Amino acid sequence: DKRRARIEVADAAVDRAAAEGRVERLNVRQATALAWISSYSVERKEALFQDFYRENRLLADTVRAQIAGGRAQPADAVTPKQEAAQLAEQQDDLIRLRAQARAALRRWIGPAANDPPVGSLPEWSIDASGYSHKLQHHPALAAFVPMTREAQAKVREAKAQKQSDWSWELDYQRRGRQFGDMVSVQFTFDLPLFPDSRQNPKIAAKHAELNQLEAEREALVREHTQQLEDDLAEYERLKRAVRRSQDSLLPLAKEKVGLTMASYRAGKSDLAAVIAARRELIETRLKQVDFEEQRALTSARLYFAYGDANQ
């Protein structure tokens, strides 16, 4: 019984190590995807600034033309320069974020992180109802199966210590001529005495470890259930935010810039309104990248936890 319990403990420990390896592999794959998405999104924002600077130069040309035609004040010539300085300040923050994003990605893929990311954000289909049924198969929760088997085997091993072991040993000794050869037989057995102070406390301790493991699993199930529901709700919110930005907010911001610029050229509006509209457009374009990045990050967490068949 003791040998059988030890074998069960060893087998369960091997399965537990394999389950922990699957959990770690999931963590690495997910962390790599999140780092790549963040790095890619920073590069997208950096590329937008080329358009921002080009539009700023066109604004400067328009302002000079308005001043030359007497439809604007000479002080307006400073405003495009101020906008360019503000853009440079924002770009400095992006340069810092790009260095941080590449450093995070380099942790997982090495020097290849120094290359600009190519392609587009990954598109994963999210099955909300299916993920709820796959919750119990999450690698972190599945790891509790061999861990529980190991704890149960340790309980049986502790109980087996209350049983006596016995063994026998046969010796043959060929001695010198002045002595006769000798054969000896030895029987040994142990006595599990004083179980209340020896075996029973060990059994109780192993039972406590098993109960603790079951409680930890229940707590982790609730934690993952909450996290899954939160991520699904966040994913749906971000889907709506991306669609709203593409279909409404961004076109309206572009239209507002066009209208205020036309009014300024006609002498019916001041330059401050143009700058305010341009600032709204810039923030809307940057925010759209943020929405798409957050949606991709959330879908990556859901996909690698519940939708990846190669875990």
Give the helices and strands, then pairings.
Layout: H1 2-68, H2 78-109, H3 128-133, H4 139-142, H5 144-160, E1 166-173, E2 182-189, H6 199-265, H7 271-307
Antiparallel strand pairs: 1-2
Helix pairs in contact: 1-2, 1-5, 1-7, 5-6, 6-7
Can you put this structure into words, describing what you see?
The chain has 311 residues and is mostly helical. It has helices spanning 2-68, 78-109, 128-133, 139-142, 144-160, 199-265, 271-307; strands at residues 166-173, 182-189. The longest helix has 67 residues, at 2-68.
Task: Give the overall pLDDT as a whole number.
Answer: 89
Instruction: Output the strand order for the largest sheet.
Output: 1-2
Q: State the end-to-end CA separation.
A: 36 Å
Rg estimate, integer Å? 35 Å
DSSP strand count: 2
Shape category: elongated
Structure summarized in a few sentences:
With 311 residues, this protein is mainly α.
Structural key phrases:
single chain; two-stranded antiparallel sheet; 7 helices; elongated
